[in-house]
Amino acid sequence: MRCRLFIATVMMCAPLLGHSQTSSPVALTIYNQNFAVVRQPLHLDLRTGENNVRYTGATRQVEPDSVVLHDPSGKRALQILEQNYQADPVSLQSLMEKYEGQTIKFEVHNGDKTELVEGKIIRAGGPVPRNGTPQQPCYNPPYGPGCQQNEQPLIEVNGNLVFSAPGTPLFPALPQGTNLLPTLDWTVASDRPGPLDAELSYVTGGMTWEADYNVIAPVSGNTLDLVGWVTMDNNTGKTFENARIALMAGDVNKVQPGQYDRLQMFARNGPGIGGGIGGQPPVTEKTFDEYHLYTLQRMTTLRDKETKQVEFVRAAGVNAKRVYVYDGGRIDPLRLQQYGGNWDYLRQQRDLGTGSSPKVWVMQEFKNSTENHLGMPLPKGRMRFYRRDENGTMQFIGENTIDHTPKDETIRVYTGNAFDLTGSRRRTNFRIDTAQGNADESFEIKVRNHKNEPVEITVVEHMYRSATWEITSSSAKYEKKDSQTTEFAVQVAANGEQTVIYSVHYTW
Question: Is the peptide bond before 142 cis (omega within 30 degrees of 0)?
Answer without folding.
Answer: yes
